[in-house]
From TrEMBL:
Residues 605-652 form the EAL domain. This is Sensory box/GGDEF domain/EAL domain-containing protein. It is found in: Cell inner membrane. It comes from Pseudomonas syringae pv. actinidiae ICMP 19096. Gene3D superfamilies: 3.30.70.270, EAL domain, PAS domain. Residues 33-108, 166-206, 302-373 form the PAS domain. Residues 253-305, 375-427 form the PAC domain. It comes from the Bacteria.
């Protein structure tokens, strides 16, 4: 190697040699790393890119975006550098710009997310979940470069859209199935509850919407899991990253609750919950289905309970096959009927009924069972010893899961004591305890019915009021026991004077009333009234024998006819009573028909009695003494005391 000797010496060179082994190794290592990460990025199925925020130019892309949309590199090149803006859905442009603006000013430490739609090669819109993170920013913390990843979620959005498209069908199903279906809005407020909730829990859908499901939960501790899910959703509603994680993690959740029905009963309910998302990945709410799972538990419990009830019931129970032959009976059946269970197996229940009622009752019962599936009512049955007794019987047709008749279940109980008690109560309520005649209540009911019947048939009704004359002295002198015997015999005599269709009642004390069945004409009614009244007066000619002595009483009878003397119950009774008092004033032991002037006389008498009472209070009476002399007028023999009334209107 020759060194140059002058400036113009171009045939000489200077050679510098250095060891660059380490640098070459570093370069090779960087190339290897770049090749490695390039391979990694290319294998990522999603579109990965780096973009300059200010110029909107793509600095780097793994080119999966165009491939996913079905475009080759020549087609993308023909669309230009900003091909993605051309393919972006017009409705999503604003959302994208808003995200970029937020990314520029506030996104240096925040992951931003949105769902954008791009047109593929087949002119269909595909949805991408776009997530971007700041990669570089300037000294003012304004983002200058971002790194992003776009994931094709078209199939997921389509599934969500399909779910929403099916919502109407679900609502229609919700109206007809027994499961309780509900949904919430994006704020977790219940916005729909199926009407089946009223059948399942007894609450209206509006009540659940207002109060929430927690109000229907019997054990609040069972809400822990459900509340935790609701709380988790509430916390991430405004956090896209965590909301996206929730969408990936939570699919279907199942919870078990004891729900408290409106009637106080508890039932176990299985609740299945799914989260609903729209095509953009936004949370739309919760969709839930609640199902009563107590059927199997209840069926097992019912079987055990039914066996216990069957064996220990106080009512007789027997079970027949579909043909009606007895296949099973309980112990109470033996106590009530007198038959051992073995004696009635494979027999028809008709052997237990009274023969005179058997055929007609069985035909009627079978018609009811065929039409309604159940029948309940009163039947006269007979015991093994032949004794007849009233029984309350219920029969139910039992069908299997296919709806075919499986058996008949019959229960019955002896209601002899109940019937006797009802009869006693009825007699106490509607009959006089002493004479066993109808009392005032029953008599007025019959009179009311007779007046209605007479009005429809344009007939005449006869009402008679009767009061015994001279009964009080006998009752006071001989005692109430003797007076009661006289009233009882009087009731017997009155019944003998009328027909079986007529009514004789005791109103109280020694007053009786008689209601004669309606007659078509007034003349017939008058004739019959006179005939009955005369028979009554004639019957009293025979003395009453009390304590070995004979006593005579008479009767005063008042008679009123409807509609002549009134078509209303109260008016007719008042007029008959007025006629009776008129009979007393006419000397007793007679009968009088009501006349309109009787009320005026009675009113005058009542006014006189009232004025007399006021005269005593107002000191309107004045005492006068009038002397009395002997015939010659010379000797005073006495004095006559006169009480004179100075009436304020009538004078002295």
């Amino acid at each position: 190697m020759r060194l140059p000797e002058a400036r113009s010496d171009f045939d000489a060179v200077i050679l510098s040699i250095g060891d660059i082994t380490s640098r070459k190794q570093t370069e090779l290592s960087l190339l290897d790393r770049e090749s490695f990460w390039s391979d990694v990025i290319r294998t990522v199925p999603d579109h990965l890119y780096v973009q300059d925020v200010l110029s909107q130019r793509m600095i780097y892309s793994n080119h999966h975006f165009g491939h996913t949309l079905g475009y080759n590199k020549f087609e993308l090149h023909a669309m230009g550098e900003f091909f993605w803006e051309i393919l972006l859905h017009p409705e999503d442009a604003k959302s994208y710009q808003d995200m970029r603006l937020r990314q520029r000013h506030h996104g240096h430490n925040e992951l931003l997310q949105c769902v954008l739609r791009f047109r593929d090669h087949e002119n269909n819109w595909r949805c991408f979940d776009v997530r971007e993170q700041a990669l570089a920013w300037d000294t003012e913390h304004l983002v200058t470069r971002i790194i992003g990843i776009a994931k094709d979620i078209t199939e997921q959005v389509a599934s969500s859209q399909s779910l929403r498209d099916s919502e109407q069908r679900y609502r229609m199903l919700a109206e007809s199935i027994s499961d309780v279906i509900f949904s919430t809005d994006a704020h977790l407020t219940v916005n729909y509850v199926s009407p089946s909730v009223e059948r399942a829990l007894g609450y209206s859908a509006d009540w659940i919407t207002r109060n929430g499901w927690s109000a229907a939960i019997a054990n609040p501790q069972q809400l822990t899991g459900f509340d935790a899910l609701i709380s988790r959703i509430s916390k991430v509603l405004n956090k896209p990253q965590e909301l996206a994680r929730l969408r990936d993690e939570v699919t279907t959740r199942m919870f078990l609750f004891d729900c408290l029905r409106a009637d106080g009963r508890k039932i176990p309910v299985e609740l299945r919950v799914v989260l609903v998302w729209d095509e953009h990945g936004n949370f739309e709410g919760i969709f839930g289905v609640g199902r009563d799972i107590s059927q199997q538990r209840r069926a097992e419990k019912d079987l055990r309970m039914a066996a216990t009830v069957f064996e220990h019931s106080t009512s007789a129970i027997l079970i027949t096959d579909p043909a009606g032959y007895i296949v099973q009976a309980n112990e109470a059946f033996t106590r009530v009927s007198g038959y051992e269970v073995a004696q009635v197996l494979d027999q028809l229940p008709g052997m237990l009924t009274v023969e005179s009622e058997q055929e007609a009752h069985l035909r009627y019962i079978l018609r009811q069972l065929n039409g309604q599936g159940t029948w309940e009512g009163e039947i006269r049955l007979k015991r093994r010893n032949g004794e007849h007794y009233p029984a309350w019987v219920g029969i139910t047709a039992v069908v299997d899961d296919e709806g075919d008749l499986a058996s008949y279940v019959c229960f019955f109980s002896d209601i002899s004591e109940r019937k006797a008690s009802e009869d006693r109560i009825h007699r106490l309520a509607y009959y006089d305890a002493l004479t066993h005649l109808p009392n005032r209540t029953l008599f007025q009911d019959r009179l009311h019915s007779a007046l209605q019947q007479a009005e429809r048939q344009q007939a005449w009704v006869v009402l008679m009021f009767l009061d015994l004359d001279r009964f009080k002295p006998i009752n006071d002198s001989l005692g109430h026991a003797a007076g009661d015997r006289m009233l009882q015999e009087m009731a017997t005599r009155l019944l003998a004077c009328v027909s079986a269709d007529d009514t004789v009642a005791r109103m109280g004390g020694d007053e009786f009333t008689l209601l004669l069945q309606p007659d078509i004409t007034r003349e017939a009614a008058l004739t019959r009234a006179i005939h009955v009244a005369e028979r009554i007066l004639t019957s009293l000619v025979t003395p009453f024998v009390l304590e070995g002595r004979e006593f005579f009483v008479t009767a005063s009878i008042g008679i009123a006819l409807s509609p002549q003397d009134g078509s209303e119950l109260s008016k007719l009774m008042k007029n008959a009573d007025t006629a009776m008092y008129h009979a007393k004033e006419c000397g007793k032991n007679n009968f009088q028909f009501y006349q309109t002037d009787m009320n005026a006389t009675a009113l005058e008498r009542l006014e006189l009695e009232s004025d007399l009472r006021h005269a005593l209070e107002q000191q309107e009476f004045t005492l006068y003494y009038q002397p009395q002399f002997s015939g010659d007028g010379k000797r005073l023999t006495g004095a006559e005391a006169l009480l004179r009334w100075r009436h304020p209107r009538r004078g002295l």
